[in-house]
Amino acid sequence: MNKKSIFIIILLSTLAFGYYSSTGANEVSMRYTSNPQLPTILPSSEWLGTPLDSKGRFVNLYHPFESSFGDLIKWQTTKNPQKEEKKSENRRLLVELDSIIWKGSDDYLVWLGHATYLFRIDGTVFLTDPLLLDNTFLKRDSDLPFPVHHMPRVDFLLLSHNHRDHCDEKTLRFLAEKNPNMKVLTGLGLQTIIESWLKGHTVQEAGWYQQYTLLDSGLSITYVPSRHWSRRWLWDDNQSLWGGFFIQNGEKSIYFMGDSGAGAHFADIQRHLGSPDYCLMGVGAFKPEWFMHQAHISPSDAISAFNTLQGKFFIPMHFGTFDLSDEPRMEPWDILVQNQSRIDGALVEPIIGRNLMADR
């Protein structure tokens, strides 16, 4: 591979997924922030808010992000030991649209691939981290269960962080045009990135353990920590927050992990908010583990995190739709099936288009 090819690969990877290098939580000079207009569910009497380093960048609670640009180069220029296995992989995620889902007023939870879930609770429709249309960097390896213009009405759009496989400009512009009353719930700092894509839609930003105030009574959404990082361009490393969502009503609860490495924050979430019924857990884009482990949890570690959360249903995501890493497309699912006896709950096969709440 010549130097020009290496440069192009590194440049595309940087623009597509961003990169960050910092001592993070090891900084001596720390300060804390939150949205003063939102209530905070205090995890402890010592909670001061979402931490920032001395340069005003968000940092993880327990694990500083210590990878370097050199690690990115090393990954991109090192031969993938599973290259041939990955190349010969011919399995795809199953797609089965159940048209009955959209009829009536029952709750539903439908995977659309990667980190995109469409779900309805008490008549309100939510959509997480949508990437529905191919863009310059990312092409789908799995089909949507319906033509994108048949997307049901969306009341609330939940954006976990600013990376391009979770926050896609083309998709957000499409959704904004189609849903004039849609509201956006996200983390601190993301509004400046997305507001020009919207059409005056309401955006509410939260810090970790803050609850959004735009929902009807009886339904709450809390923005919760993850172990990750953010970057959209070359100059905005960790200037917007990353996290997950904990959705609750009187009957059920859903935990959406977003992107995360392993960490003590899973125990914190369970201790402060309770055990979720449906755990939407990322399991893909985890190889090589020496490089990915700080940002993307492995299937095995995701099982441990699910058990820590004490959830009822383990629903995997973040695999099979986009080619982001070294493992074959369906390997994360295979690992989960092989280790199903370790899961203290029910493993749900995430068939795209199926109501994953049905009969549960």
From TrEMBL:
GO terms for molecular function: hydrolase activity. The lineage of its organism: Bacteria, Pseudomonadati, Bacteroidota, Cytophagia, Cytophagales. It comes from Mariniradius saccharolyticus AK6. This is Zn-dependent hydrolase. Residues 126-319 form the Metallo-beta-lactamase domain. It holds the Pfam family Lactamase_B_2. Keywords: Hydrolase. One of its GO terms (cellular component) is cytoplasm.
